[in-house]
Amino acid sequence: MTGLELHRLTVGYRGRRGRTVASDLSAVAETGRLTSLIGPNGAGKSTLLRTVCGLQPPLSGTATLADGTDVSSMKAAELARRVAVVTTDTVEPGRLTAREVAALGRTPYLSPTGRLSDVDRRRTDDALAAVRAKHLADRQFHDLSDGERQRVLAARALAQEPELLVLDEPTSHLDAPSRVEFLDLLATLAREQGIAVLMSSHELELVMRLSDEVWLLRTDGTMITGTPGELADDGSVSAAFDRGRLRFDADRLAFVIDTRS
Q1: Cys staple from 96: which of 18, 43, 100, 102, with CB 3.0 to 4.6 Å?
Q2: DSSP class per residue in 196-220
Q3: Which domains are assigned to the chain?
Q4: For the whole prediction, is pTM greater than 0.85?
Q5: Position 261 pLDDT exceeds 60
């Protein structure tokens, strides 16, 4: 089932100094699957993510959800219920506990009083359990490790009950074991929660091992999509990332130093 579909989408910036970053993009992120957006620095990954989240308008084309709704036409309240976003921005929620931070994801559903209902509390606890962070619920957020914080932020996003979860570089502040664990968690969440998960990442080797689908955004503003194996075997990844003696080995799904030159 389609979770997000790009229809000849062109992204970039308007105005006198406006520019097109990527154009004529067509791709699908399916429900129940982890889709990873990769590409060289400056290719426009963050611009594309902001556009599909409804945070900035497309220059042309559309990004639509499962029922065909154009993300750019949605009002903020509906967008907050259907699309959840985890960014790289530092979160400093004062003295809030992990449960209280996760419960912020229920904001789009709150009554005018702003009080959590029993349903809101259950949804919050379910979200913490889904990201394997229920044991952190009563700890203060600022006391958590980076990996633990990222799990709680993912729980906050899940508490929104979205159909699309978008993450921008979610492993950028994590150590190596935590990166593997978190990407595996995202793939599990996509399947178990029945949502489409789209993330950008510089962790190319992990992405190629743990993703279901890959969107490769190239520096010329075009994009190619496929399974990790398909993009490795047809040379697309190598063409985008090989630098000098550094080569991407399609068999190992890893970077290697070419000692022949």
Answers
A1: 100
A2: EEEEE-S-HHHHHHH-SEEEEE-TT
A3: 2-89+163-257 (3.40.50.300)
A4: yes
A5: no
